[in-house]
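Is magnesium ion placement plausible here? Inputs below.
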Amino acid sequence: MSVVDTAAPGSSPSESLASLAIEDLHVAFGGNRVLQGVDLQFTPGFNGLIGPNGAGKTTVFNVISGYVRRNEGSVLLNGEDIAPLSRTGRVKAGIGRTFQAPRLILDATVMENTLLGRHHLFRWGHLAELLLLPQQRREETEARQVCMDLLDRFGLADVAHEEAGALSLGSQKLVEVARALVADPTVVLLDEPAAGLGADDVTVLLRGLRQIQVERNLCVIIIEHDLQLVTSLCPKISVLHFGEIISEGSPEHVTTDPVVIEAYLGHGFEAEEDGEIHEVESPLSEHHHIDHVEEEGELTEMWTEDDDPQQEESS
Ligand SMILES: Nc1ncnc2c1ncn2[C@@H]1O[C@H](COP(=O)(O)OP(=O)(O)O)[C@@H](O)[C@H]1O
Ligand SMILES: [Mg+2]
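Reply from A.M.:
I modeled the complex. Tokens:
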């Protein structure tokens, strides 16, 4: 009947050929028309979604994962409209995501945070947990193994029992990726997973993602600011600008498309002589963090410079 029934946990992710389609999507926040008739098709492999800040990229993810309501249009998972599904229903249907600013429980351990991603797959409920029934313990042990395997692939096995809040922003973002993947998704939405990561962490991230994508034939949709990263990872890239798809195709096609170059110029990007665009300097650095700022009832993510306590110790 619904997507939940057709793609419930238990169907092996490796057998699935997930597809996600967005048709004529419109979203407005008050008078702010953020998405204006967006059509997108995603299939297994790496799909890039790029565009200048404020283009509406995160809003696309928020609609797919049920955090923002559409005004018009549809999101089809394997051909079925997922509008009736709750956020958890969408996770159960196979849609996983990470957030641009990691949303971890900072005083819980890395393992505990990761286990949360698997919770909806547990067949035995809290009563079994309280009674410490053997089935529940087996389930918990298995879940911990799945989590540890994922944490290990992202270089986090050694910190599995540390508090998430003790980790660098980069490592916290890797924990989010692991948490999304332990849910056995068929479609994974990654919102700027490499922003704020050091070069070593980016290498670990990409190696892990590539391996898991192949093993599970995952449909990965990645929003990424770093053009070099996205063009090396994604054979197909869609470019969003002011709520509309302005270009789509191979990395070569989109990075040399005059419409895209025009949209990016003046946003920290410039065109090279051969016509390719590249980043002048990343606006996202290790010395910034994301704040959620509410203005006139609208929630916006803003990068803010970190306080530097050392500067205050001048005596
Ligand atoms: N929950 C929200 N409420 C109100 N306005 C929002 C909300 N989310 C995003 N917006 C607005 O929508 C526009 C696009 O935002 P977003 O999708 O985050 O862009 P991007 O991820 O491409 O930088 C921005 O003007 C932003 O302020
Ligand atoms: Mg965003």
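Short version: The pocket of magnesium ion (ligand 2) is lined by residues 57-58, 100 (CB under 6 Å).
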